[in-house]
Amino acid sequence: MIDLNSLFEKRPLIIAGPCSAETEEQTIETARQLAANGIKVFRAGIWKPRTRPGNFEGIGTVGLPWMQRVKEETGMITSTEVANTHHVEEAVNAGIDIIWIGARTSANPFAMQEIADCLKGVEIPVLVKNPVNPDVDLWLGAVERLQDAGISQIGLIHRGFSSYEKILYRNAPLWQIPIEMKRRRPDLHLICDPSHIAGKREYLFEIAQKALDLNVDGLMIESHINPDKAWSDAKQQLTPAALNEMLGNLVIRDVLPQGISPKLLDELRAKIDVIDDLLIDLLKKRMSISEGIGRYKKENKMAVLQPARWDSLLNKYMMMAGENSLSRELITKIFQAIHQESINIQDKIINPKK
Ligand code: PEP
Ligand code: MN
Questions:
Q1: Residue 35 C-alpha to ligand 1 middle, in angstroms?
Q2: Is 13 left (phi over 0), alpha (psi -120 to 50) or beta?
Q3: How confident is the model at residue 255 (pLDDT cuts 50, 70, 90)?
Protein backbone atom coordinates (compact mmCIF):
# COMPACT_ATOMS: atom_id res chain seq x y z
CA MET A 1 0.00 0.00 0.00
CA ILE A 2 1.10 3.55 -0.73
CA ASP A 3 2.22 5.58 2.28
CA LEU A 4 0.54 8.94 1.69
CA ASN A 5 2.70 10.84 4.19
CA SER A 6 5.91 9.77 2.51
CA LEU A 7 4.69 11.22 -0.80
CA PHE A 8 4.72 14.66 0.82
CA GLU A 9 8.30 14.43 2.01
CA LYS A 10 9.41 16.37 -1.03
CA ARG A 11 7.02 19.30 -1.19
CA PRO A 12 5.00 20.20 -3.12
CA LEU A 13 3.69 16.82 -4.22
CA ILE A 14 2.60 17.06 -7.85
CA ILE A 15 -0.27 14.92 -9.11
CA ALA A 16 -0.81 15.28 -12.85
CA GLY A 17 -2.64 13.59 -15.69
CA PRO A 18 -5.59 14.09 -17.96
CA CYS A 19 -9.02 15.11 -16.78
CA SER A 20 -10.24 11.85 -18.35
CA ALA A 21 -8.65 8.68 -19.62
CA GLU A 22 -9.93 8.71 -23.21
CA THR A 23 -7.95 6.10 -25.13
CA GLU A 24 -5.21 3.69 -24.18
CA GLU A 25 -2.74 5.60 -26.33
CA GLN A 26 -3.62 9.03 -24.85
CA THR A 27 -3.45 7.67 -21.29
CA ILE A 28 -0.12 5.89 -21.66
CA GLU A 29 1.54 8.61 -23.70
CA THR A 30 0.50 11.35 -21.27
CA ALA A 31 1.84 9.27 -18.38
CA ARG A 32 5.12 8.58 -20.19
CA GLN A 33 5.74 12.26 -20.84
CA LEU A 34 4.84 13.23 -17.27
CA ALA A 35 7.02 10.48 -15.81
CA ALA A 36 9.91 11.65 -17.99
CA ASN A 37 9.55 15.06 -16.30
CA GLY A 38 9.74 13.49 -12.86
CA ILE A 39 6.05 13.46 -11.97
CA LYS A 40 5.41 10.56 -9.60
CA VAL A 41 1.63 10.49 -9.21
CA PHE A 42 -0.70 10.10 -12.19
CA ARG A 43 -4.34 11.14 -12.24
CA ALA A 44 -7.01 10.24 -14.80
CA GLY A 45 -10.77 10.23 -14.47
CA ILE A 46 -12.33 6.90 -15.41
CA TRP A 47 -15.86 7.85 -14.35
CA LYS A 48 -16.68 11.53 -14.93
CA PRO A 49 -19.40 13.43 -13.10
CA ARG A 50 -20.77 15.84 -15.71
CA THR A 51 -23.08 18.69 -14.93
CA ARG A 52 -25.35 18.07 -17.94
CA PRO A 53 -26.08 14.72 -19.61
CA GLY A 54 -24.81 14.14 -23.11
CA ASN A 55 -21.19 15.02 -22.38
CA PHE A 56 -18.44 12.42 -22.17
CA GLU A 57 -19.10 10.58 -18.92
CA GLY A 58 -15.81 8.72 -18.72
CA ILE A 59 -14.52 5.65 -20.49
CA GLY A 60 -15.50 3.44 -17.53
CA THR A 61 -14.20 0.01 -16.62
CA VAL A 62 -12.31 -0.57 -19.89
CA GLY A 63 -9.92 2.21 -18.87
CA LEU A 64 -8.78 0.46 -15.69
CA PRO A 65 -6.24 -1.85 -17.40
CA TRP A 66 -4.72 1.27 -19.01
CA MET A 67 -4.02 2.59 -15.53
CA GLN A 68 -2.42 -0.75 -14.73
CA ARG A 69 -0.18 -0.32 -17.78
CA VAL A 70 0.75 3.20 -16.65
CA LYS A 71 1.93 1.69 -13.39
CA GLU A 72 3.89 -1.10 -15.00
CA GLU A 73 5.46 0.96 -17.77
CA THR A 74 6.25 4.19 -15.94
CA GLY A 75 6.36 3.19 -12.27
CA MET A 76 3.93 6.01 -11.49
CA ILE A 77 1.41 5.85 -8.67
CA THR A 78 -2.12 5.90 -10.11
CA SER A 79 -5.18 7.74 -8.89
CA THR A 80 -8.77 8.14 -10.02
CA GLU A 81 -12.11 9.51 -8.84
CA VAL A 82 -14.78 7.29 -7.29
CA ALA A 83 -18.35 8.41 -6.81
CA ASN A 84 -20.14 5.22 -5.74
CA THR A 85 -19.52 1.76 -4.31
CA HIS A 86 -19.29 0.18 -7.75
CA HIS A 87 -16.44 2.56 -8.64
CA VAL A 88 -14.70 1.81 -5.34
CA GLU A 89 -14.80 -1.95 -5.90
CA GLU A 90 -13.60 -1.73 -9.48
CA ALA A 91 -10.83 0.77 -8.73
CA VAL A 92 -9.54 -1.22 -5.76
CA ASN A 93 -9.66 -4.52 -7.69
CA ALA A 94 -7.80 -2.91 -10.59
CA GLY A 95 -4.96 -1.92 -8.27
CA ILE A 96 -5.51 1.86 -8.37
CA ASP A 97 -3.20 3.25 -5.65
CA ILE A 98 -5.07 6.37 -4.51
CA ILE A 99 -8.71 7.30 -4.94
CA TRP A 100 -10.27 10.73 -4.71
CA ILE A 101 -13.77 11.86 -3.94
CA GLY A 102 -15.10 14.53 -6.31
CA ALA A 103 -16.68 17.82 -5.31
CA ARG A 104 -20.21 16.74 -6.17
CA THR A 105 -19.86 13.59 -4.09
CA SER A 106 -18.27 15.13 -1.00
CA ALA A 107 -21.31 17.43 -0.92
CA ASN A 108 -23.59 14.42 -0.45
CA PRO A 109 -23.55 12.78 3.00
CA PHE A 110 -25.53 9.70 1.84
CA ALA A 111 -23.08 9.03 -0.99
CA MET A 112 -20.16 9.64 1.38
CA GLN A 113 -21.56 7.19 3.93
CA GLU A 114 -22.02 4.48 1.31
CA ILE A 115 -18.49 4.95 0.01
CA ALA A 116 -17.09 4.97 3.55
CA ASP A 117 -18.96 1.73 4.39
CA CYS A 118 -17.69 0.12 1.22
CA LEU A 119 -14.10 1.10 2.09
CA LYS A 120 -14.20 -0.60 5.51
CA GLY A 121 -11.18 -2.86 5.78
CA VAL A 122 -9.65 -1.54 2.54
CA GLU A 123 -6.28 0.12 2.96
CA ILE A 124 -6.15 2.79 0.31
CA PRO A 125 -5.38 6.49 0.63
CA VAL A 126 -8.36 8.73 -0.09
CA LEU A 127 -8.21 12.38 -1.13
CA VAL A 128 -11.35 14.37 -0.43
CA LYS A 129 -12.14 17.33 -2.66
CA ASN A 130 -14.01 20.23 -1.13
CA PRO A 131 -17.77 20.09 -1.72
CA VAL A 132 -19.04 22.32 -4.55
CA ASN A 133 -20.63 24.63 -1.98
CA PRO A 134 -18.42 26.54 0.45
CA ASP A 135 -19.22 24.66 3.65
CA VAL A 136 -16.29 23.70 5.86
CA ASP A 137 -18.46 21.40 8.00
CA LEU A 138 -19.70 19.47 5.00
CA TRP A 139 -16.11 18.95 3.86
CA LEU A 140 -15.11 17.93 7.37
CA GLY A 141 -18.13 15.62 7.55
CA ALA A 142 -17.03 13.78 4.42
CA VAL A 143 -13.58 13.27 5.98
CA GLU A 144 -15.05 12.11 9.30
CA ARG A 145 -17.29 9.52 7.64
CA LEU A 146 -14.19 7.99 6.04
CA GLN A 147 -12.25 8.12 9.30
CA ASP A 148 -15.11 6.51 11.18
CA ALA A 149 -14.95 3.67 8.66
CA GLY A 150 -11.29 3.14 9.57
CA ILE A 151 -9.63 4.91 6.63
CA SER A 152 -6.42 6.23 8.09
CA GLN A 153 -4.77 7.87 5.10
CA ILE A 154 -6.76 10.91 4.10
CA GLY A 155 -5.77 14.08 2.26
CA LEU A 156 -7.67 17.20 1.20
CA ILE A 157 -8.02 18.79 -2.22
CA HIS A 158 -9.12 22.40 -2.65
CA ARG A 159 -10.75 22.79 -6.09
CA GLY A 160 -12.79 25.95 -5.61
CA PHE A 161 -16.52 26.53 -5.22
CA SER A 162 -19.50 26.97 -7.55
CA SER A 163 -20.71 30.49 -7.93
CA TYR A 164 -23.93 31.82 -9.40
CA GLU A 165 -22.35 35.14 -10.18
CA LYS A 166 -20.07 35.35 -13.18
CA ILE A 167 -16.49 35.33 -11.97
CA LEU A 168 -13.11 35.34 -13.66
CA TYR A 169 -12.39 31.74 -12.80
CA ARG A 170 -14.53 28.64 -13.32
CA ASN A 171 -14.80 28.09 -9.57
CA ALA A 172 -14.30 30.69 -6.86
CA PRO A 173 -11.18 29.88 -4.84
CA LEU A 174 -12.53 31.34 -1.54
CA TRP A 175 -9.13 30.81 0.04
CA GLN A 176 -10.53 31.37 3.51
CA ILE A 177 -12.25 27.97 3.31
CA PRO A 178 -9.12 25.82 2.76
CA ILE A 179 -7.30 28.00 5.30
CA GLU A 180 -10.03 27.29 7.85
CA MET A 181 -10.01 23.60 6.94
CA LYS A 182 -6.26 23.48 7.50
CA ARG A 183 -6.71 25.25 10.83
CA ARG A 184 -9.26 22.67 11.92
CA ARG A 185 -7.37 19.69 10.56
CA PRO A 186 -3.65 20.52 10.62
CA ASP A 187 -3.00 16.78 10.59
CA LEU A 188 -4.21 16.41 6.98
CA HIS A 189 -2.20 17.33 3.90
CA LEU A 190 -3.82 19.92 1.67
CA ILE A 191 -3.48 19.83 -2.11
CA CYS A 192 -4.68 22.60 -4.41
CA ASP A 193 -6.28 21.77 -7.77
CA PRO A 194 -5.70 24.95 -9.80
CA SER A 195 -7.17 23.32 -12.93
CA HIS A 196 -10.74 23.18 -11.66
CA ILE A 197 -10.46 26.60 -10.02
CA ALA A 198 -9.07 28.21 -13.20
CA GLY A 199 -11.18 26.64 -15.93
CA LYS A 200 -8.70 28.18 -18.38
CA ARG A 201 -5.02 27.34 -18.69
CA GLU A 202 -3.98 31.02 -18.65
CA TYR A 203 -4.94 31.31 -14.98
CA LEU A 204 -3.22 28.15 -13.76
CA PHE A 205 0.09 29.73 -12.85
CA GLU A 206 -1.29 32.54 -10.71
CA ILE A 207 -3.56 30.17 -8.80
CA ALA A 208 -0.83 27.59 -8.27
CA GLN A 209 1.57 30.29 -7.03
CA LYS A 210 -1.01 31.70 -4.67
CA ALA A 211 -1.68 28.21 -3.30
CA LEU A 212 2.03 27.65 -2.72
CA ASP A 213 2.29 31.02 -0.99
CA LEU A 214 -0.46 29.84 1.32
CA ASN A 215 1.72 26.83 2.01
CA VAL A 216 -0.30 24.01 0.46
CA ASP A 217 1.38 20.62 0.45
CA GLY A 218 0.74 19.71 -3.15
CA LEU A 219 -0.85 20.51 -6.50
CA MET A 220 -3.13 18.42 -8.69
CA ILE A 221 -2.99 19.69 -12.26
CA GLU A 222 -4.66 18.35 -15.39
CA SER A 223 -2.32 17.51 -18.23
CA HIS A 224 -3.10 16.02 -21.65
CA ILE A 225 -0.93 15.27 -24.69
CA ASN A 226 -3.36 17.18 -26.91
CA PRO A 227 -5.31 19.53 -24.60
CA ASP A 228 -7.37 21.27 -27.28
CA LYS A 229 -8.75 17.91 -28.38
CA ALA A 230 -9.51 16.67 -24.84
CA TRP A 231 -12.90 15.04 -24.40
CA SER A 232 -13.47 16.93 -21.14
CA ASP A 233 -12.10 20.17 -19.67
CA ALA A 234 -10.15 21.01 -22.84
CA LYS A 235 -9.61 24.68 -21.96
CA GLN A 236 -7.90 24.06 -18.65
CA GLN A 237 -5.46 21.29 -19.56
CA LEU A 238 -1.77 21.69 -20.33
CA THR A 239 0.64 19.53 -22.30
CA PRO A 240 3.18 17.74 -20.08
CA ALA A 241 5.86 20.07 -21.52
CA ALA A 242 3.85 23.21 -20.68
CA LEU A 243 3.17 21.84 -17.22
CA ASN A 244 6.86 21.25 -16.72
CA GLU A 245 7.65 24.81 -17.73
CA MET A 246 4.97 26.19 -15.44
CA LEU A 247 6.19 24.15 -12.47
CA GLY A 248 9.70 25.42 -13.12
CA ASN A 249 8.49 29.02 -12.83
CA LEU A 250 6.71 28.55 -9.51
CA VAL A 251 8.47 29.92 -6.46
CA ILE A 252 8.40 27.59 -3.49
CA ARG A 253 8.70 29.41 -0.19
CA ASP A 254 9.24 27.39 2.96
CA VAL A 255 7.25 28.13 6.11
CA LEU A 256 10.59 28.37 7.86
CA PRO A 257 13.51 28.18 5.45
CA GLN A 258 16.59 26.53 6.91
CA GLY A 259 18.93 28.81 8.83
CA ILE A 260 16.31 31.50 9.41
CA SER A 261 15.53 32.50 12.96
CA PRO A 262 11.82 32.76 13.64
CA LYS A 263 12.43 35.34 16.43
CA LEU A 264 11.56 38.46 14.47
CA LEU A 265 8.55 36.75 12.91
CA ASP A 266 7.37 35.67 16.38
CA GLU A 267 7.67 39.24 17.59
CA LEU A 268 5.71 40.63 14.68
CA ARG A 269 3.05 37.96 15.15
CA ALA A 270 2.80 38.77 18.85
CA LYS A 271 2.18 42.42 17.93
CA ILE A 272 -0.55 41.40 15.53
CA ASP A 273 -2.14 39.22 18.21
CA VAL A 274 -2.29 42.20 20.56
CA ILE A 275 -3.96 44.36 17.92
CA ASP A 276 -6.43 41.58 17.10
CA ASP A 277 -7.37 41.36 20.78
CA LEU A 278 -7.94 45.12 20.78
CA LEU A 279 -10.09 44.84 17.67
CA ILE A 280 -12.26 42.20 19.34
CA ASP A 281 -12.59 44.35 22.42
CA LEU A 282 -13.54 47.40 20.36
CA LEU A 283 -16.10 45.41 18.42
CA LYS A 284 -17.63 44.19 21.66
CA LYS A 285 -17.92 47.77 22.91
CA ARG A 286 -19.32 48.97 19.62
CA MET A 287 -21.99 46.26 19.55
CA SER A 288 -23.10 47.04 23.07
CA ILE A 289 -23.62 50.67 22.01
CA SER A 290 -25.73 49.36 19.12
CA GLU A 291 -27.97 47.69 21.69
CA GLY A 292 -28.49 51.11 23.33
CA ILE A 293 -29.32 52.63 19.95
CA GLY A 294 -31.79 49.76 19.34
CA ARG A 295 -33.57 50.51 22.61
CA TYR A 296 -33.69 54.23 21.77
CA LYS A 297 -35.14 53.54 18.31
CA LYS A 298 -37.69 51.18 19.79
CA GLU A 299 -38.90 53.72 22.35
CA ASN A 300 -39.11 56.43 19.68
CA LYS A 301 -40.62 54.19 17.00
CA MET A 302 -37.75 54.86 14.61
CA ALA A 303 -36.80 52.57 11.69
CA VAL A 304 -33.65 50.51 12.22
CA LEU A 305 -32.01 51.46 8.95
CA GLN A 306 -31.31 55.15 8.56
CA PRO A 307 -30.03 55.25 4.95
CA ALA A 308 -28.81 58.87 4.99
CA ARG A 309 -26.63 58.24 8.04
CA TRP A 310 -25.20 55.01 6.62
CA ASP A 311 -24.41 56.77 3.34
CA SER A 312 -22.60 59.64 5.03
CA LEU A 313 -20.66 57.22 7.25
CA LEU A 314 -19.53 55.18 4.27
CA ASN A 315 -18.34 58.35 2.50
CA LYS A 316 -16.40 59.35 5.58
CA TYR A 317 -14.77 55.92 5.85
CA MET A 318 -13.79 56.07 2.17
CA MET A 319 -12.02 59.37 2.76
CA MET A 320 -10.30 58.00 5.84
CA ALA A 321 -9.25 54.91 3.91
CA GLY A 322 -7.58 57.13 1.32
CA GLU A 323 -5.84 59.24 3.96
CA ASN A 324 -4.53 56.17 5.75
CA SER A 325 -3.47 54.25 2.64
CA LEU A 326 -5.94 51.47 3.37
CA SER A 327 -7.75 49.75 0.51
CA ARG A 328 -11.26 51.09 -0.01
CA GLU A 329 -12.42 47.57 -0.74
CA LEU A 330 -11.21 46.35 2.65
CA ILE A 331 -12.76 49.25 4.56
CA THR A 332 -16.08 48.86 2.71
CA LYS A 333 -16.19 45.13 3.46
CA ILE A 334 -15.37 45.60 7.14
CA PHE A 335 -17.85 48.38 7.72
CA GLN A 336 -20.58 46.68 5.73
CA ALA A 337 -20.18 43.63 7.97
CA ILE A 338 -20.13 45.73 11.15
CA HIS A 339 -23.11 47.77 10.02
CA GLN A 340 -25.07 44.63 9.13
CA GLU A 341 -24.35 43.12 12.54
CA SER A 342 -25.41 46.36 14.19
CA ILE A 343 -28.70 46.27 12.26
CA ASN A 344 -29.26 42.65 13.30
CA ILE A 345 -28.72 43.55 16.95
CA GLN A 346 -31.11 46.50 16.79
CA ASP A 347 -33.65 44.45 14.88
CA LYS A 348 -33.63 41.78 17.60
CA ILE A 349 -34.37 44.46 20.19
CA ILE A 350 -37.13 46.10 18.18
CA ASN A 351 -38.69 42.82 17.01
CA PRO A 352 -37.93 40.28 19.72
CA LYS A 353 -38.83 36.71 18.75
CA LYS A 354 -41.84 35.58 20.73
C1 PEP B 1 -11.80 16.10 -11.85
O2 PEP B 1 -10.88 16.09 -11.03
O3 PEP B 1 -11.65 15.88 -13.05
C4 PEP B 1 -13.14 16.52 -11.38
C5 PEP B 1 -14.25 16.15 -12.01
O6 PEP B 1 -13.06 17.30 -10.32
P7 PEP B 1 -14.16 18.04 -9.40
O8 PEP B 1 -14.81 16.98 -8.60
O9 PEP B 1 -13.27 18.92 -8.62
O10 PEP B 1 -15.08 18.80 -10.31
MN1 MN C 1 -11.54 17.84 -15.05
A1: 22
A2: beta
A3: low
Interior angle at CA 66, CA 60 and CA 68, nearest 5 = 115
* Residue 102 Cβ contacting ligand 1 at under 6 Å: yes
At residue 261 the predicted structure's pLDDT band, cuts being 50, 70 and 90, is confident
Q: Are 76 and 34 in contact (CB under 8 A)?
A: yes
- Ligand 1 centroid to Cα of residue 103, in Å, is 6
CA 192, 193, 199: angle at the middle one, nearest 5?
140
Is 105 buried (19+), middle (13-18) or exposed (0-12) by CB count in 10 A?
buried
Return the ligand number nearest the Cα of 104.
1
- DSSP per residue over 306-325, as a string? -HHHHHHHHHHHHHHHHHTT
Distance 19 CA to ligand 2 centre (A): 4
| CB of 196 sitting under 6 A from ligand 1 | yes
**Is the C-beta atom of 129 inside 6 A of ligand 1?**
yes
- In terms of DSSP bridges, do strands 154-158 and 126-129 run parallel, antiparallel, or are they unpaired? parallel
Q: How many CB atoms lie within 10 A of CB 235?
A: 14
Reported as a single tens digit per residue, the pLDDT across 59-83 is 999 999 999 999 999 999 999 999 9
| Pocket lining: 19 vs ligand 1, CB cutoff 6 Å | yes
Q: Whose CA is nearest to atom 4 of ligand 1?
A: 102
pTM of the model: 0.79
- Ligand 1 neighbourhood includes 103 CB (under 6 angstroms): yes
Q: What is the pLDDT of residues 98-109, one digit of tens each?
A: 999 999 999 999
